[in-house]
From TrEMBL:
Organism lineage: Bacteria, Pseudomonadati, Pseudomonadota, Alphaproteobacteria, Sphingomonadales
Domain ABC transporter: 2-247
Protein name, per record: Fe-S cluster assembly ATPase SufC
InterPro entries for this protein: ABC_transporter-like_ATP-bd, FeS-cluster_ATPase_SufC, P-loop_NTPase
Taxonomic source organism: Sphingorhabdus lutea
Keywords: ATP-binding, Nucleotide-binding
Source species, domain of life: Bacteria
Gene3D superfamilies: P-loop containing nucleotide triphosphate hydrolases (3.40.50.300)
PROSITE patterns tied to this protein: ABC_TRANSPORTER_2 (PS50893)
One Pfam family cited in the UniProt record for this chain: ABC_tran
């Protein structure tokens, strides 16, 4: 589904990704762990097409298509979802308005029928209930006045409504308490653990992986993946730290 070959990327004049290789098949959940400054968020933003993250070499294939040739909105329409470490606030735009416009814009790009207002509300209620989010929160401006946990839960509702092929989730567990972490973990499993979908989960901590149970864990250090393994690799990192495990 997603094949990254020898990817190099700069932020400004500084090289961050230095020959990263990764292959994610449909039905798989991959976790990436690594020390601060290793390039984890840069990888997520580069895949998503964020401005300021410049690819200087390599290729990214998504379902047989050259992902790097697409604009960010085209990547989204192709089935890519990017979850941010720090979800942004959008004053004056309600969650429901934002999500309906986003979903229907993607449907138009794919030549699919748009959802009516009633159809969309039914879908939003279903996904909000799955993430234990009150529908009243979806009527509020996007993330405005939300706690850290509410922002992450809201992002999972967004993911459920958009229903992407692959989700790139950048430290979704950051700032979550125990209950919020459990809800987010269950949301990832319920929405994305399917034979036709995939997840790239960027995290520092074992606690989310206990809930999501990835198929593969990778250590990213110095701008490239230096070690890969099963879920047991995360336990090894927890016990010994990055420096020893990635050496």
């Amino acid at each position: 589904m997603l094949k990254i070959e020898n990817l190099h990327a700069n932020v400004g004049d500084k090289p961050i990704l230095k020959g990263l290789n990764l292959n994610i098949n449909a039905g798989e959940i991959h976790a990436i762990m690594g020390p601060n400054g290793a390039g984890k968020s840069t990888l997520a933003y580069t895949i998503g097409g964020r401005d300021g993250y410049d690819v200087t070499g390599g290729a990214v294939d998504f379902d047989g298509e050259d992902l790097l040739s697409l604009d960010p909105h085209e990547r989204a329409a192709a089935g890519l979802f990017l979850g941010f470490q720090y979800p942004v606030e959008i004053p004056g735009v309600s969650n429901l308005q934002f999500l309906r416009e986003s979903l229907n814009a993607q449907k138009r790009a794919r030549g699919e029928d748009e959802l009516s207002g009633a159809e969309f509300i039914r879908l939003a209620k279903e996904k909000a209930a799955m993430l234990k989010m009150d529908m009243e929160m979806l009527k509020r401006p996007v993330n405005v006045g939300f706690s850290g946990g509410e922002k992450k839960r809201n992002e999972m509702v967004q993911m459920g409504i958009i229903d992407p092929k692959i989700a790139i989730l950048d430290e979704t567990d950051s700032g979550l308490d125990i209950d919020a972490l459990r809800i987010v973990g269950e949301g990832i499993n319920n929405i994305m653990r399917r034979p036709d979908k995939a997840v790239l989960l960027i995290t520092h901590y074992q606690r989310l992986l206990d809930l999501v149970k990835p198929d593969f864990v990778h250590v990213l250090a110095g701008g490239k993946i230096v070690r890969s393994g099963g879920a047991e690799l995360a336990l090894e990192l927890e016990e010994y730290g990055y420096e020893e495990v990635a050496a």
